[in-house]
Design brief:
The complex is a heterodimer. By secondary structure, chain A is of the alpha/beta class. Chain A has helices at about 25-35, 75-80, 100-110, 125-130; strands at about 1-5, 5-10, 15-20, 25, 60-65, 65-70, 90, 120, 135-140, 145. The N and C termini of chain B lie far apart (about 55 Å). Classes of the chains: A alpha/beta, B alpha/beta.
């Protein structure tokens, strides 16, 4: 087991299975079809992301450098949270980007009963270490345990 | 974050619970970036990204309704991204059924909400709101609360306005409270380049391909591009602005670029030159081989990669008036050369309603119509945003459309060849 310390963007605790991308996570491309056509697993639909394409994202610990793409990104993430199809947590190697931050904040302020811990600044080492299927635990103080 | 007395009172609920939540959203958003303060928005108009009445986006409409019910609306009028549907654009029975009875059933409801929230006018639906004909063109140095990645990168880079890559919903919330957090591209420091891009091609690089290569490399950083002025000049005329519109959209969709500087061309690069580059900036050299490599790496997601294209979309982001005129000349000439009268693939050129209105007043409109090309105000991305289109071989020279849909990318010349001569 290895621990990484990050910065808390939105708080919470959770344990979930990791899905990992080393490329930017394109929120619109990844989630639009899944949300639109009732895919409860929210399988990634981003054909440009070979690591994630086709993999379920709902309820997973999404490990990523940052999000990229359309400025609908935050809104899409907000909708995923409101519909209960969001990742269990989002763990950023880099500083969070403006779109992901918007999605996390919108969900935190405007959606009742949904918790999606978001931790950023976990560093490149985190992303190099974590692999698909590993168990991730996010602690209250922003510590991320990878098992 | 430091808040003024007025901002603190709003956060404390002086203007009601809903307004307090809007302020809380902006403060939390700023805190995520260690913003030191909120600064007033100074542009005349806002621009929103969410224009589509997708049934599945009901959480968005619910939130908008909460704002309307609490009479928490913006004093600032806004334009918004393109509508998703137009009867002029070819669609089969099944597509029409899915579009109208399943996907976009909330379109009228949402447009009604937008009007109440402050839509500029009924035709203010375009991603290229900065076109002169549309009239939402901010001045240099103005602070914006815009969303729409292609519009934000254009406003920052070509117009010299200051705007972060705000998300949908955040865009209108900033406008409602009248403030945005001061961080990132709003600051002098955040507008400095951390990448130097050297263009060493032997011909004018395809705008969308070059933008794509840079976006994938720099992600959300600010690139300073050297050597592009050799190909597009050092004057921000129609041709250069059109090029930068398409280039920027690609940097923002294949990456997360919100600002670029083009040496000797864009306003801040002209003013400050290489002083904009931070010490230790990374370097990326782009030559013909690199662009070819990027293009060849685009995945082909058609079921049958050799299928004959059934539709061609041009105009993501929306085309300019000059672009429509230039393409009219090109399509006409190429058809004549091939001995054809009409385009061989159903082809749609998309542009803002106001740009189309201006285009329709020129002789070009009838000439383009005679070639069989259809003009429309829709968002091609929204049209293709459904599983039925996955099976449909659509071609485009828009890298943004390629990124988000199953449309296949070709260069402008290849598109022209395909639609007028049937070539690949």
């Amino acid at each position: 087991m290895k621990e990484f310390k990050g910065r808390i963007v939105t708080p919470g605790t959770v344990t979930a299975e990791a899905v990992v991308t080393h490329e930017g996570f394109n929120t619109l491309a990844s989630l639009q079809m899944a949300l639109q056509f009732g895919d409860k697993e929210a399988k990634c639909g981003d054909q440009n992301n070979a690591e994630l394409n086709g993999k379920p994202l709902a309820g997973k610990a999404l490990c990523l450098p940052q999000t990229i793409g359309s400025t609908t990104g935050g809104l899409v993430l907000y909708c995923a949270c409101a519909m209960g199809r969001q990742p269990a947590c989002m763990l950023f190697a880099n500083h969070i980007d403006s779109l992901a931050a918007a999605g996390a904040v919108l969900a935190d302020v405007w959606v009742d009963g949904v918790t999606m811990p978001v931790i950023d600044c976990l560093g490149d080492e985190f992303l190099n270490y974590v692999k698909d299927g590993m168990t991730i635990t996010v602690k209250e103080d922003g510590t991320v345990c990878v098992d | 974050m430091f808040l003024t007395d007025e901002q603190q009172r709003i956060l404390n609920g002086e203007k009601g619970e809903t307004m307090a939540k809007v302020m809380k959203t902006m403060v939390m958003y700023g805190d995520a970036f260690e913003a030191e303060k909120l600064v007033p928005i100074s542009s005349k108009y806002n621009h929103l990204v969410t224009s589509f009445g997708l049934k599945v986006m009901s959480p968005v409409y619910d939130l908008m309704q909460k704002l309307l019910d609490a009479e928490v609306v913006s004093g600032q009028k806004f334009s918004v991204d393109p509508r998703p549907l137009d009867k002029k654009v070819p669609a089969n029975f099944l597509q029409n059924f899915v579009f109208n009875k399943f996907m976009y059933t909330k379109q009228d409801f949402y447009e009604d909400q937008l009007e109440k929230l402050g839509l500029m006018d009924k035709d203010a639906f375009t991603c290229a709101c900065y076109m002169d004909e549309v009239g939402n063109k901010p001045e240099k140095g103005e602070i914006l609360s815009w969303a729409e990645s292609s519009a934000v990168v254009y406003a920052n880079s070509v117009l010299g306005a200051r705007c972060n890559r705000n998300s949908g919903i955040l865009d209108i919330m900033g406008s409602i409270v009248g403030y945005v957090p001061y961080f990132g591209l709003l600051t002098d420091e955040g507008r400095k380049a951390t990448w130097v891009i050297k263009i060493e091609t032997t011909k004018k690089p395809e705008a969308q391909l070059l933008g794509s290569a840079i976006g994938m490399k720099v992600m959300e950083d600010v690139p300073y591009v050297i050597g592009l002025d050799k190909w597009i000049g050092n004057e921000l005329n129609d041709e250069a602005c059109t090029y930068l519109k398409d280039f920027g959209a690609a940097t923002a969709s294949n990456g997360a670029v919100g600002l670029y500087h083009i040496e000797n061309l864009t306003p801040e690069a002209v003013e400050k030159g290489k002083d904009l580059i931070v010490e230790g900036a990374k370097e990326y050299v782009i030559d013909d081989a690199e662009l070819e490599r990027v293009k060849n790496n685009y995945p082909v997601v058609w079921k049958n990669p050799d299928a004959k294209p059934k539709l061609c979309f041009m105009g993501c982001p929306h085309m300019s008036l000059q672009q429509l005129k230039d393409w009219t000349d090109k399509v006409e000439a190429s058809l004549k050369e091939a001995g054809n009268k009409k385009v061989l693939i159903p082809t749609v050129f998309t542009a803002a309603p106001k740009v189309l209105e201006a285009f329709n007043k020129t002789d070009y409109a009838k000439r383009l119509e005679a070639t069989g090309v259809i003009t429309s105000y829709i968002c091609p991305l929204m049209y293709m945003n459904n599983p039925l289109c996955k099976k449909m071989p659509v071609i485009t020279s828009s890298n943004k459309l390629r990124t988000y849909t199953s449309a296949r990318y070709y260069t402008d010349d290849e598109i022209l060849n395909a639609i007028t001569k049937g070539g690949k």
